[in-house]
Amino acid sequence: MTEKNHLDLKGKGLIILGERDGVPAHTIEQAVEGLGAKVAYSSTQCFV
Amino acid sequence: MDLEVQGRVKELAEQYGKDDLVVILGAPNVDSCLVQFETITRGDPTYAGPLAGIELGLRAFHIFEPEVKRLIDPGRYGELIETLELGLEAEAIVKALQEARGGGK
Amino acid sequence: MSNLQPVIKAASAILIHSPGLVRYGSKPSREIAARPSRLQELLGSLRTYEQAENYLPNDVFLGKQSPQSLLEIARPWFNHPPLKPNEAFPFGELVEEERFIALLAVADVFKHVHLLERFWEDAKPRLDRSALCRPLVRVDPPLLTREQLRSEIERGEGLPLYVGTDPEPVGWVRHGNAEDESLTAHILLENLCCKVSAALAVREIFHQDGNLKPQDAHFVLSCSEEAVGDRYQRGGGNLAKAIAEFAGCDLASGVDIKDFCAAPIPAMVIGAAMVQSGVVENVIVVGGSSLPKLGMKFLYHVEKGLPVLEDMQAAVAVWIGRDDGLSPIINLASVGRHPVQSGAGMDQQLKAIVVEPLERLKLEVAGVDKFVSELHNPEITIPANGGDVPERNYRMLAAVLASCGKIGRGEIAEFIKKKGVPGYVPTQGHIASAFAYVPHALRGLTQGELRRCVLFARASLFLGQMTQLSDGMSLLLERHP
């Protein structure tokens, strides 16, 4: 696996690790909607 | 990384296989971002959780990184993420992850 | 009716040095249960009372230093020589653990908390000598001999109480009911810590201002983080009434306001609305301490050779009353809310709770002296990879204001420095969410130079796993014209 290949999310499972003070999971989900990935796990952490 | 989350990531890695799984991070700063990246690729650096000593080698990107950003409609990205980029140390996060990835698999 | 305009007449702050209780914080107790050797690591990193008393962020919390001093004195603060060592704390007191543990037993009307006889003999005179604590001691607590305490420990149906790093327990908390998960010793201890610390903050108001009397308090709103209840009603609540009773506010009733960390802001809004509408004349909004938050980041601190800095319980109380011609005004027309449809990102939250009210009031950024939000002590959060939380909040607020054209992009750094407040609160959660700043705001808006400050707070509702949403609210405090 090489990182130089362009990333393609189609057909992939997605793990979304959002953060309250960064980018929350819900926002990331909205951003990647329609790219053909399936959200396998999505959660927003709150470290403070 | 929360132990519960580590457990879920491990389960899903076993279920999907590393080639069919991508992790997207939304951490707000370089330090927490690197800890998460390390945990998902090379194992929990604190040796506290289910991913202690487990090299999952998953592909992980921050939402700010060009690899992910280029896939998203620019208007949508602008609406959802642009101000967050302005308010967080986006460039530093992207640079740190590129360096961390460059040294790995 | 202008004479019902709500104002802040008083605000107090209390810190309780709680090294012996850190082991019962949520993270420490789970870590020690998984790895018992963690207890010794924890005990080896606890501070003395003197170290806590001379710690700059604690000085700021209790008003001996201004928040500005945190920008003038470089970190590390934990080994900085004491500044103004013999001066009193203007906003309240730094209560030592012995008095607090004794008060836990005194406050426990169901007599689950027992104290070692010898401990009470030592603690009682300390309480009697304290003008703050003495009014709270109306009954003697149940006492145990050393042998009786030993047998309680052997039976194991409760929790031992310790002071500092002393391995000898000084008391015992029994489970409230063997068949009720909501009345375990741990939960009773948590709730009692909140009750006592809140009552101390309330009493401090009467101690500071002789014009405000317990019988003038008509309503108490608790914005604390505990959940009082039983197995049939786990969050039944109204710790506020228990606080009112313990603090001697016999003419008050109360309710609890729950909104995760943001609770103090809606509590102040609701309290001010009750005064403005004439429901009651005076409301006390109080945030009691959170036992679970003690030692939250202790592993990081121990690993990096720092003392355990989350060894303080914190409580704040605010008195809201009717316009008296001089106290700072709570501007209820300014309230910013976070409706369901608002976005999840911090930028969307801040747009809803800060920018929208500014636009609605036609208030320029230049017209607000301070935007006050999360005041977590960076010396606690940075070693735990959490960054500088206040700075992050202001950076994001500045970015949002810039993206809305309220300030220029080039003004972001200046905004953070001038309009932000650096962090100093020893605990995460409700007290850190702008609430701890209210005594400073009161001082600044009366004796100082402040004209307006916006307090805003955010709540991570998703932690309760009932919704993915967050919440937030803001409120404007203004100098009396």
Quickly count the helices of chain C: 17
Number of strands of chain C: 14
| Strand and helix order of chain A | EHE
Largest interface: A-B, 33 and 40 residues
Distance between the termini of chain C: 16 Å
Mean pLDDT of chain A: 88
**Shape type of chain C:** globular
The coarse overall form of chain A would be: elongated
Tell me what the CATH architecture of the domain at 329-478 in chain C is. 3-Layer(aba) Sandwich
Count all strands of chain A and give the number: 2
Describe the protein in words.
With 48 residues, chain A is α+β, with helices and mostly antiparallel strands. Chain A has one domain (1-48). Chain A has 1 helix and 2 strands; from the N terminus they run E-H-E. Chain A has one helix at residues 25-32, and strands at residues 13-19, 38-45. The model of chain A has no long low-confidence stretch (mean pLDDT 88). By secondary structure, chain B is mainly alpha-helical. Helices cover 54% and strands 9% of the residues of chain B. In chain B, strands 1-2 form a two-stranded parallel ribbon. Chain B is globular. The model of chain B has no long low-confidence stretch (mean pLDDT 90). Chain C is of the alpha/beta class. Chain C has a domain at 329-478: 3-Layer(aba) Sandwich (Peroxisomal Thiolase, Chain A, domain 1), CATH 3.40.47. Chain C is 35% helix and 17% strand. In chain C, strands 2-1-10-9-7-8 form a 6-stranded mixed sheet, with helices on both faces. Chain C has a 4-stranded mixed sheet with strand order 4-3-6-5. Chain C has a 4-stranded mixed sheet with strand order 11-14-13-12, sandwiched between helices. In chain C, helix 7 (117-129) links the parallel strand 3 and strand 4 (143-144). Classes of the chains: A alpha+beta (48), B mainly alpha (105), C alpha/beta (481). Chain A binds chain B through residues 1, 3, 6-9, 11-19, 21-25, 27-28, 30-32, 35, 37, 40-41, 43-45, 47, and chain B through 1-2, 5, 8-9, 12, 15-16, 18-29, 32, 36, 57-59, 61, 63-64, 67-68, 71-72, 76-77, 80-81, 84, 88, 101, 105. Strand 1 (13-19) of chain A pairs parallel with strand 1 (21-25) of chain B, so a sheet runs across the interface.
